[in-house]
Structures are given as structure tokens and as C-alpha cells.
Design a protein that fits this description.
- The chain is 61% helix and 3% strand.
- The chain contains eight helices and two strands, in the order αβαβαααααα.
- It has a two-stranded parallel sheet with strand order 1-2.
- The chain is elongated.
- The N and C termini lie far apart (39 Å).
Length: 157
């Protein structure tokens, strides 16, 4: 009600709750965590509040987004896909890679997110495999690509 009264709409406000702290020495970091959660809320579905006390991978990458090593990692990992898409050779592959990462590499779910038939995702997967020269079934490869996609979404590439 207070957000609606002051902002006109409760949707316009984002509440981020940071971790409880024992003293002023810890307050700065807790406020940074809450600010990070609020900034990340823009890319998430609307909800009444966001908990910054248990940070996730997006939180970590947001905090590291300006680190040149993190940006270089993501740029190198995604370069073949970004170059492919920039050259406009066939269907863009970054949305396919994003959908695969978002779906936990479940092909049917990724296809639905892309509004494709499940069979249509297989040629894209083969192009991704060839471009990235990677085993896309390998959990380490999937994790690395997911991190690169998240960094790219946060503006790090």
C-alpha cells in the first residue's frame, strides 16, 4: 500500500531484502547485496520482494560484470555464435543457446520457448556443436556456456 500511495503503482517498486547483519561493519556489504538484488530484479518476473541473503549465480556475475577476465571469458566462449549471428547465416543461434541454458538443456522445453517444433532444434544444436567445437552434452561445457550467456545478458560482452 505504501508503494502504491507514493509511486502510483506497487509494480513500480522493487523491494530487495539483504541479509541480517550484526553491526555497522557488515552493513555496507549487506546494502550492496540488496542493491544487486534490486538491479537484477529487472530481468526477473515481477514479485513482491527479492531476497539478497542467498545470492545466486546471477548475483555473483552482476558483481563481477566489470572484471575484464569475466568479460573476456564470455566473449571468447560466445564469439563463434555471435559472429555467426552477425553474418546472418541462417537462423540466429544465440536465442537457441539462451533457450537451452534457460531450460536446463531440455530440448523440448527450449523448442517451446522458441516457438519451434522439437525436431527443429536438432539442426541448430548441430550448428552450435560445430561452431563451438564442443560436446554440448558435457555438463562442464553446459555450465561454461550458461555463465557466458548470463554475462552477455548482464552487458558484459
Amino acid at each position: 500500500l505504501a508503494a502504491e500511495r507514493h509511486l502510483g503503482s506497487p509494480v513500480a517498486a522493487v523491494l530487495a531484502a539483504g541479509p541480517a547483519v550484526a553491526g555497522w561493519d557488515e552493513a555496507g556489504e549487506a546494502l550492496r547485496d540488496a542493491a544487486c538484488a534490486a538491479a537484477l530484479a529487472a530481468g526477473e518476473p515481477a514479485r513482491p520482494w527479492h531476497d539478497a541473503s542467498v545470492p545466486g549465480l546471477r548475483h555473483l556475475l552482476w558483481r563481477l560484470r566489470d572484471d575484464a577476465r569475466v568479460r573476456a571469458f564470455a566473449a571468447r566462449r560466445l564469439a563463434p555464435v555471435l559472429e555467426h549471428d552477425a553474418a546472418r547465416r541462417g537462423a540466429p543461434l544465440l536465442p537457441t543457446l539462451e533457450a537451452l541454458c534457460d531450460s536446463g538443456w531440455h530440448k523440448a522445453q527450449a523448442a517451446r520457448a522458441l516457438h519451434l517444433e522439437r525436431q527443429s532444434i536438432y539442426p541448430r544444436l548441430e550448428r552450435l556443436r560445430a561452431l563451438l567445437a564442443a560436446d554440448l552434452d558435457d555438463p562442464q561445457t553446459q555450465a561454461a556456456l550458461h555463465v557466458a550467456v548470463l554475462v552477455q545478458r548482464l552487458g558484459g560482452v
